[in-house]
Known about the structure:
12-stranded mixed β-sheet
Amino acid sequence: MAPVSTFRAYRYTRDAELDEIAQLINTCRAADNLENRTSATRLQENFADPEFDITCDLRLWRNSTGDLVAAAALWQLMPEQMVLGRLEFEIHPQVCKDGLVDDVLTWAEQRLRETGQDKTLPIVLHSACRDSLPGRQSLLTQSGFTPERYFFRLQRSLHPPIPFPQIPDGWRIRSVDSQKDARAWVDMFNQTFVDHWNHHPMTVEAFYYYETLSTYTPTLNRVIETPDGQLVTFCVSQIDPERNARLGLKEGHVCLLGTRRGYRRLGLARSLLLESLQQLKAAGMETATIGVDAQNPLGALGLYESIGFQKVRSSTVFRKTVAR
Length: 324
């Protein structure tokens, strides 16, 4: 007989809990030697995502004395072919993880079943893990997950010369005007990634939400526009001052890069990436990072490496089929 859990699950009820959640996450990341940290303010921003229901998609676990020992967030995505949830969770390193992992996964699976109960689609749960954490990977595999997709984080020094971007005559590179460009930008994004792994269509509401994030800088949201005004390529970068100050870095991150179908193989993504690197350098950054799907069908990894990016770490997305 399985042991009865001594932990109790709670719904999120008040903003004061954000400080506790941030402290738990940071404690776990420090124990795992991860550089990322968060704060109550950052969590509040993340949970304000219009596609996230904080009362149903966030769950907390406390021990018998009321201390927060685990937190899990389920980001529900809706590719056409499945009901998909991306699970992020942290369990305090001083707590025996095995029992709580079962509690977390049971909650996440039940939540996904609620979403998919009126649909005749497979229900799938994803959870990502850096490859530097074999213990966490073992917990996932022991819980029925299998590796599905692999991702790299790449880095490039901004000290070497950055080639000048080349675009066709009459085309231009410019910043995004959120009021004028929102619908066209969203359409371009969806046309670009529709053939990518687990594409989740973006909405105009989501576009405006991302603009509210504290790390968003309008001038680092760049596009290439054709002479007739069509947006065909985009690159969104960010600078995180808090992270840089804490780690003693001057680093920018390229968050999104793509070219819509019908305009690929023209060197547009390469040119806009080069222009974005020049922007980061002009802002005082010394390095730039970018993430890439190792199985990207359009050769993104080769593009980034040709510009001077090198792999610095890798991660794996694990998959568990909850219902077929």
